[in-house]
Each structure stands twice: as C-alpha cells, then as structure tokens.
Amino acid sequence: MNNIQNKSIAFLCIALAIPYLAVAQDSFTNELHYAVHKTYPYISLKTEKLKEANTLMDLNPHYKPSWIREYLSVELTASHNGTIEQATGKNELLTRQQKDLLLMADVHKSISVKVRYMPENTLQHNDPKELDFSFTIDPDNDAQYPGGQEQLNQYLLEHAIDKIPAGSFTGYRLAAVKFTISEAGEVSNVHVFESSNDEKTDALLVAAIRNMPSWKPADFSNGIAVMQNFVLTVGNMENCVVNLLNIRRD
Predict the structure, then answer these.
(1) What does the alpha-carbon distance between residue 215 and residue 212 come to, in Å, rounded to a whole number?
(2) Which residue among 48, 109, 138, 220 is least enclosed by CB atoms within 10 Å?
C-alpha cells in the first residue's frame, strides 16, 4: 500500500513540475519578454461608458445590489468648473440630475458615490449602513513616449534589456518597475514593485526608466493634461504578481 502511495505522489510531483520545466526551458530559448503597461485606479471609466451609464453598476462593476434591502439615499458628488456639486437619487437607477452632473463633471477630478441603505440579511434588527466608492475618468489620449511605442521598445532594449545577463530570468521570475508620467510629461515616482532578485538588474531597470526623455503627457479632448501611471515588466507574465499590478490585459 505504501509503495502505491509513494509512486502516486512521485507521479503527481513530476506532472506538476512539467509545466514549470517547460517555462524554464522557454526562458533560455526565447528572447526576454518586456513591456510597458498602463496601470489603472481600482475603478475608472472611459468617457463613452460614462455617457451611457444608467445605474450604479454601470459606474462600478464591483457594486452588489444584492446586499441592499432598501435604499435610503444615493448621493453623487463631483466637481464642476472647480465647484463641488451633488445630486441625490433614491435607488441604483441614476436620476436625470445625476446623469447631467456626470456629463458636466471636471474630467480630471474623481467622482464619488455614497449609498445609504438597509442591508439585506436575516437579522431581526438592522441599522442603516453606508457604502461609498470613487472613480476616475480615463484620459482620451494616453501618455506617449517620443516617437511612439517602437521607439520606446528600442530605448529599453538598448539601455536595459540587452545589458541583462543571459539566464537572469528563469521559470516564473518577473521584475516590475512602476513609474508616473506627470502632467508636464516628466518621469517621476520610479520604484521597484517586484524585484528581479538581483540588485544590479533592478538598478539597471530603474536607471533606464529615470533617464528616459520627457513624454507627451496624457490628456483629454479639452486639452487638460493629467498624470498617468505605468509599469515596466520584464520576464514571465504568468507570475502571480501580475494580478497586483492593476494592468488590463485584453
């Protein structure tokens, strides 16, 4: 019986190791994968989606109406021409006033929603609860490296990727360096989010990002420029850390 169990365990270990070995082998035979991704706030909407919004679920995909037995009020707050304005509704359906405020809101400012409600549960006595969330509007035009994506890839290849020793990234290893492009197009807030486990490689990636030329900043169709966050990833994108980077993978 013990021999059968031992053989089963050994077979399971080999089976689990095969995918890892395949990935490790690929890291030696394929070029090192690298890319710059936009990172997003927890909740953000494109202008087109904002115009089409009719419910709280349209504003926040994480919103759960099943939590609510009875709505007491739904308060939407936004900045309009620099002045804070509010519009109140009675349930998850947006009122005409709330929709108008969304359309008039200053695009570079966050919009907040506060829901007061009675919770849906089995308790005999319930106290009113509050649920609130905020979201931002995605810029119409993303920040852009001078010359575009091809020039960005070439810059990173010459100043970082080609200088990394062969075999540095094996298996599921991934490095991630986050940075911000300011409203003026300057590179700022450069920091290692996930280490390559090699100080020289981390320093090489950080230096390459810090020494980049100025970008064209992200902006809206009305000309207002806004900061935008990015992350440089190098290595295996199957690493579980990717789920923490707040990037959107199509």
Answers:
(1) 8
(2) 48
In angstroms, the CA 112 to CA 110 distance is: 7
| 79 contacts: CB under 8 Å, gap ≥ 6 | 85, 105, 106, 109
pLDDT tens column, 152-189: 999 999 999 999 999 999 999 999 999 999 999 999 99
Kindly give, in sequence order, each residue whose CB lies less than 8 Å from that of residue 210, ignoring residues fewer than 6 positions away.
187, 190
- Cβ burial 142-165 (10 Å sphere, 16+ → b, else e): ebbbeeeeeebeebbeebbbeebe
Angle at 133 between CA 128 and CA 135, to 5 degrees: 160
- Report the relative pairing of strands 218-219 and 225-226 from DSSP bridges: antiparallel
Q: State phi, psi for 85 to the nearest 5 degrees.
A: -125, 155
What SS3 class is residue 174? strand
Residue 77 CB partners (closer than 8 Å, separation 6+): 84, 85, 86, 111, 112, 113, 114
